[in-house]
Structures
1.
Amino acid sequence: MPFHIETPTITSRAWGKGSLDAAVLKLDALQPTGSFKLRGVGAWFEHAIANGARRVICPSGGNAGFAAAYCGWRSGVAVTIVVPRTTSEEVRRAIEGAGAEVIVFGAAFDEADLHAQALARQNDWAYLHPFDDPLLWRGHSTLIDEVLANGDAFDCVVTSVGGGGLLIGILEGLERHDLRNIPVIAVETEGAASLHSSLRANERVTLDRIDTVATSLGAKRIAESAFQRARDANVLCVTVSDNQAIAACLKLANTARILVEPACGASLAALDVHCEKFAGCRRPLVEVCGGIGVTIEKLLRWHGASAGAQSRPDFPGAQ
Ligand SMILES: *Cc1c(COP(=O)(O)O)cnc(C)c1O
């Protein structure tokens, strides 16, 4: 039995302008752990359990860790999550509440990751990387299987990109169904544009720092495989501002009554902000990837801060 659930899609006319007819929203925010991560992490756990894993360690900003904690609870495998100091108190508590041990280490994901790798080696624990693992990609790819099995028509896919695991999963899913020609629009926020910068430089670059409210997109370096695939495949990379991502979260909350992180809002924002890039597409499939690092209060605070910072005539939440 997989750990994740099949999620519904809804077709919404609230998003995009121009040639877009309607957006097909794949609601992975409704996974039991609040994000798509459970697809890949669950697939990884099934494999690890079959291979006798007794304890798992995973470095994570939050959502992969929460998914791992959930799988550990469901399967009786002990789980340790190493989070960086940037991970909020609420998210740490959620992970502990699911029964995992939480270690806080480092200023950002990369440092937490090195610590997790060291602990895994010392103790001989199974190590789960939150985005760079073929088992994870395979798990993420099931979202495409579900949308196709459901009969939802789409002519492009929009997804957020952090380390690139979700993007690879989507590309794998499309390939499996001979849909290589479907364009994929990969969205990052400006302060976490590791794929965008790498495609520009034509080599994988490491960002000096992460500067975005969309913390789940905060990988300084895109996975090698995501970079290679984005270079070769039909992938268009765009960026949105934090304010645009936040406005899209509010708009989703108000139109679909679903709360998601700015990491997910970024994808939805692209429909409104970059509609000219969707030329030829009428029905984008948007992966509503979710995330637990958000509360109503936080969203309103971010929104207040962004509205106060400057008034933006193109602010998509402002109509
Ligand atoms: C992990 C995550 C992402 C980015 O996924 P990658 O596989 O790292 O690219 C985007 N949104 C949310 C909510 C996430 O948890």
Note: Confidence is low (pLDDT under 50) at residues 311-319.
2.
Amino acid sequence: MKLETILVRSGSEVDPATGAVAPPIHLSTTFEHTPDGQSLHGHVYIRESNPTQARLEAALAAIDGGEAALFFASGLAAGAAYLQALAAGSHVLFADDTYHGFREMARDLLPRWGLTATAVDMTDLEAVRAALRPETRLLWAETPSNPLLKVVDLQALADIAHRRGASLAVDSTFATPVLQRPLDLGADIVLHSATKYMGGHSDVQGGALVLRQRGALHGELTHLRTLTGAVASPFNAWLVLRGLRSLACRVERHAAGALAVAEALDGHPALETVHYPGLPHHPGHDLARRQMRAFGGVVSLAVRGGRAAALAVASRVRLFTNATSLGGVESLIEHRASSEGTASTAPENLLRLSVGLEHPDDLVADLRQALAAE
Ligand SMILES: *Cc1c(COP(=O)(O)O)cnc(C)c1O
């Protein structure tokens, strides 16, 4: 079946108890079992598994073409579980512009977990090869990246990882399964912050790991999630499940809007450059054309005049809201260096746009008036 069909239909079986077409939300924390503790209905306790989460996980696995998926309380919780499942002594090679939360995790927590981490520009495959160590167990890529929209070659990275007996994990939050299929390109695991496009309405937090193979790792990750309690509420699982139904439509519109905004502002005299993989001058453009179905809904603007000019532009927008996060129906603007804090490598003149589902003409008009005074 085609992706659009899987997105609408997976995990959407009619409720056998009532015939309900929309899935029920089971809030029960505990499930009847036999006197000696054997599960009667597939679930025992909410922290281990629950019916709403199980529906969502079946859908997530089907959508990304993996054998299994796990849902967590947040994208960071999902990533933390995966990193904690690595054997002590392992080395993790991160992309240099990995999501700042994971960079802080690498700096502050990985050493305590007995792991080492280094970062490399993953657009440079020679540099990636040179950064490998005998104990490298994982390459952690993110594409397109946050906030510079760097695009890395997943097939080539999977090849490099596998030759060394390491795995490739891909944070595919910006692309979603609609625009990019990391498992088809050789990745072993995909991470999504469901807080972004999957939820899609800025009202739910969650994170997903999708595994190419069910294997022992699935059991280990489930065990880790149970023991650390990094589970989402059934209501949050349900909201993400609902978001998946319209994901293809929304992401296509987000991407079309972002392309329109990027093209309209490219070359604007108040801007040094527009970072968007859909623009022919973007260094990852050709690769993105091969690797993605469209270029995503995030655009970053490098404003002439540095930090002060960028903040002035952000203060003049009327339609865009100054707020962090992305992937909701409403357009957001953010000065990333201010919001990322200590681990930030975002340029001081950079404004990140999450292009929402408003008409792109209105968004372009708003940005033009905000840039006009510069
Ligand atoms: C937001 C985000 C995360 C973290 O997800 P949370 O749900 O906020 O924990 C990870 N990676 C990327 C690319 C993100 O944008």
Note: The chain has a mean pLDDT of 97.
